[in-house]
Model the fold of this input.
Amino acid sequence: MNRRFEPAGPLRGQVTPPADKSISHRAALFAAMTDEPVTIENYLDAADTRATLAAVQELGISVLHVGPGVVDRGLRIQGVGLRSAGAAAVAGGKAQPLDIDVGNAGTLLRLLPGWLAGQETGTWRLDGDESIRRRPVDRIAEPLALMGAQITCREGRLTPVTIEAAPLHGIEYELPVASAQVKSCLLLAGLLAEDETRIIEPLQTRDHTERMLRAAGADIRCDGSTVVIRPAASLAVDRIVVPADFSSAAFFVVAAVLVSGSEIELEGVGLNPTRTGLLTILERMGAEIEIEEEGERDGEPSGRLRVRASHLHGTEVGGSEIPLAIDELPLVALAACFAEGETTIRDAAELRRKESDRIATVSEALTALGAEVETSEDGMRIAGAGALRGGAIDSHGDHRIAMLGAVAGLASREGVEVAGMDAAAVSYPGFERDLASLRSG
Done:
């Protein structure tokens, strides 16, 4: 599906972005692990999170929609407990694993094996779409195997990945690359392991899993760069409220910064400090952003953002900032095109392991729109010109590249045509509608 986005006048108005994708995935999985029913308010209705709901239903877990069949009105999930992954045992034996389709959901692919690996019985095979089949699972397979997990992958450590229930034991494991998904997988396995599990992070990553496990009564503690979890008999939580997704809000933040005369407000946005690195980077570049925190719910802070059009200058982004802004780095690169001076992004090789190789796809897209971009193995250099011509890009099936193209179109001189705009539905089905509401505000 192709869409064209023309240059815009000032963006005005208010938007509440959709529910947080990362937290929605975790909320459904944690609810599945409890013994009592759990209500999830504001669960994201998007392709990735629907895959998680389908997965837990395949495991024999009841998922009921609260209200007239609309996911974002709420869910009621009846879990099966930590050690009884429902229908998995029915699959019966290694020769006939229960097939679970993760679609395009990388978070589901990496978190779910941590829970399944420590079950008492069952065998499961996780597979997904073409994009998922290109994303290695070695980062979870290797530490899970060290814990005693029976896990096998296709050649090259690719999906499908098969997990057979096995007794697990705790380990101390230093993550070779900062990854919240790998950390979360090992924390879930640690709930089912004998003795404690210690995970050492090279850099701090998003901590939604730690916050939710703590709220559910897990014995988990953070000691500097180390997260320690002890085995649990059960988890207990009756309600989870999902805040608006900062990563979705980020597209409007950058659009308002770049489109002359704009001033917008974003409501109910998750403001977990392990997710909001983009704000620090943009403010350093000169962006005018006001943050109004409104308290915490289930350990997650949220609030309101006010954003105004701003004059930007180039900056350097790297080191500990990278995991705090990993999903928003494509937007940093876009903003850099409109800045004065050069912007360098480094230490971001993880971008090459996303839904697309985002170093390559972002560079390709911005170059096609008239930017001067030089790539490296772990980042890129963007020569800011204060403007962007426009043109045509291909999303390559990556939702963030599709939405980046739309924002670029509004801020460009000539507009942008995006091929594969339907990819946005992976995380934000209503993106075009909400963007249009700001144009007409």
Remarks:
- The first strand starts at residue 2 and ends at 5.
- Residues 68-72, 87-94 have pLDDT under 50 and may be disordered.
